[in-house]
Fold each of these.
Amino acid sequence: MTTAVTADSLVSRAADLDAADPLRHCRERFLLPEGTTYLDGNSLGALPAAVPDAMRDAVHRQWGTGLIGSWFGGDAEWWGLPERLGDRVGALLGAAPGQTVVGDSTSVQIFNTLTAAARLRPNRRLLLTDAGHFPTDAYLADSVGEMLGLEVRRVPAAQLREALEADGDRTAVVAFPAVDFATGERWDMPGLTAAAHAAGALVVWDLCHAAGALELQLDAWDVDFAVGCTYKYLSGGPGAPAFAYAARAHHAMMRQPLTGWTGHADPFAMRGTYEGAAGIGRARIGTPTVLSMLALEAAIGAFDGVDLATLRAQSLSLTGFFIECCDALLGGRGFEIVTPREPERRGSQVTLRHPDAVKLVPAAAERGVVGDKREPDLLRYGFNALYNTHADAVRAATTLAELT
Amino acid sequence: MTTAVTADSLVSRAADLDAADPLRHCRERFLLPEGTTYLDGNSLGALPAAVPDAMRDAVHRQWGTGLIGSWFGGDAEWWGLPERLGDRVGALLGAAPGQTVVGDSTSVQIFNTLTAAARLRPNRRLLLTDAGHFPTDAYLADSVGEMLGLEVRRVPAAQLREALEADGDRTAVVAFPAVDFATGERWDMPGLTAAAHAAGALVVWDLCHAAGALELQLDAWDVDFAVGCTYKYLSGGPGAPAFAYAARAHHAMMRQPLTGWTGHADPFAMRGTYEGAAGIGRARIGTPTVLSMLALEAAIGAFDGVDLATLRAQSLSLTGFFIECCDALLGGRGFEIVTPREPERRGSQVTLRHPDAVKLVPAAAERGVVGDKREPDLLRYGFNALYNTHADAVRAATTLAELT
């Protein structure tokens, strides 16, 4: 006797799981269009409900009325945004205050941070970076390599330990993503950080697909540097500013190449030569993009009172259940599940492979299930435990079944 | 018989000048707090009236409802913002379309542009930059110098021609501001560009205090590169994104170090190695900060139909009249006018020196006249011809007289 898993039974299980979801009160913290199953928060997070009022206040009161006075006066205090927001983001990364700044784009932060890290190992001429890294990480590693005269070697994350065994003593910096942007595979951050340190190298982690989704412990794992964006699981808005983390132990010696005036020890003294601020402030670059930062500040309130272990457990429940749904409903339809099935090897997205991916993703979106594609044949569905549900997972798999 | 210029006669002349102002219809394009004379638009421009609605639309409709689809779909087309906005800014710089991008901070654009320029003169090892340049320009010139192995020499703008005569054949890049941030002095951009070219060097102009205030002609003056911010006379909002101009003739050969993925020739092919886009697109860096950019896009509409020659003439009328008011009302009170009196040597601000500047600026602000200070002894009053009036000028001088 076999027990076929039916769509109906999955819908019923989803309802039970969603009823028991300890984060279900967080869903009302987002304004999602009715009828849409939004599984593209790994690319652009949904709109947090607190953002519209915050932006109205930012424009009318802080800018329009407070004018220049809002940089330092009243409750606006724009000047402090990079560090103030940095601490808010840092709390979601397992970073004690005073080690994270927010600003600029991830690309800019990668350049600044890779260079600062490499300069801390001046006698080592090798930079190891992920062969499957997101393109901007790869491009900027090459650029840093050219400017500093480093060899840049691309290594699959799964082979990093071997590479360190062979060439660790020449390796200045190891730069990898916490979660692969294409496959959704999660790498062993604490283990690989320890391996890099054992070889005397420093690590720079890209947390774009991890911040706000995983239970990160940057301080406890002894991470040196990390960067990431805030527009995916942190739902900070389109192109929201990036963040950079630098462990306190490096603050005194680190030298970022983007020596913008706001990172100066005494910026308004307007001195002619650069002297970086004593703490994480030296990782500040130019004048902060206030409006985008204030949107992020409001958005990040959606994490208030959320325990990261609970968040991670819910994320795994959602992605695990989606894999179950795909197994049950998509068999024999040309799909392959690319993301690892072991929970500890998953981020918060599930990637499927299908020869018609490029057509299926927009077709599903027309039916209200929004994900994204990566050419030539990947479908990516990201789950944000603050607003996605197990019902979303069934609907997505059902829709893909209907289309194939 | 002497004719003393009285405050009353200045008020009367101001009224006549304002009644004849060809740009007086532009004042309603800004939302200024009642009772405030805002003369700090050279630091943060006032709120353009079109911004609040644009931001509401950006947040609710484009982000909240359009979600990921707004990057390429509908009328949002966020992806195109850097070039689309670049062309809008370029039109105010005398730049034909396709040579300007908007994004990131001025500091980041300085680094990217100085490096790209220096790489076009690989056999020259000297970078000449303004001894009185804004600090971030000085710091980033030093950083570029360190990374590329260039000597960075600080030269007062007034001595640039002599420096070029002495060492022009070793000079790769000449990096100066169009207008001095502290004194408001305007330098001879076309003449100094020609002098640099005669020596075989390239120019990088910082237009922070010029864009939206002067009648710039980057194409006609044969400028190589320029950068600037959009939050001063362009009123794009606090920390609004910067711009970078690169003359078309350099597009094929220029190599920016910040090789972010959005500047790739085919960004969504996600290739492992960088190949810059064919045109100005290669000056793009990371993911654009959409909300800040959409505020700027709405703001720049305040220039619609404004002829730059008229704008410049009005700006000179305002600053010239303010100098007259200061001469008439501030004599014997310890003030010195720092900004040159010759119109062609002025930007759009007037800087005064007074031993009590640090106290006078906030005291005047309390009486509704907002400017800013630069320690130890400078008062800066910036005039934006789109919203400032000759009445503002009299009021500012009168207020300073009352306080001294």
Amino acid sequence: MAEFTNVTISTKANIYFEGKVTSRTVVFQDGTRKTLGIMLPGEYEFSTSQKEEMDIQAGVLEYKLQGQEWKTIENSGVFYVPANESFSLKVHSVVDYCCSYFSEE
Amino acid sequence: MAEFTNVTISTKANIYFEGKVTSRTVVFQDGTRKTLGIMLPGEYEFSTSQKEEMDIQAGVLEYKLQGQEWKTIENSGVFYVPANESFSLKVHSVVDYCCSYFSEE
């Protein structure tokens, strides 16, 4: 099982959509940040302030980036969202994800 | 905000009750383990293999230990469950918790 070592984790959860989407923030020694999260079935819209990598570790979802078609990820897959953009999700089963944040545009 | 530093966190979530209860395992440098978790409204029964401390950081729930009455925790509070015992929960709002495990009985 993959793990992150020598990290700092805040004990307070990030809670969205009445708990249907929750995550924990993990900060690495180099100052970079990831969130480890869970999404329950449902439809959600998010927006980014930084470029994001969404690494789906388990579960089935469809995602739609601005100006693109819906695409499906089943159980593992990665997609990227540019900074300052919104994206839509249709989550079909419990999704376990890891989101990474990049300061470059 | 409280945080845990120099810890190891597994990237794979612990998922129970179809995602209504989920957690992440955090291992400390001394080898001890905690889980940071979320519980959505519902009724659950758990059982322990080690003595557990349930530290409720947010949310409202009632808990019932074997042979005891139901007790309520609102937004913050701690209860202990002996090893090898089951306990019941009635979760009334999204609960953010930290569970610690003790090897002594």
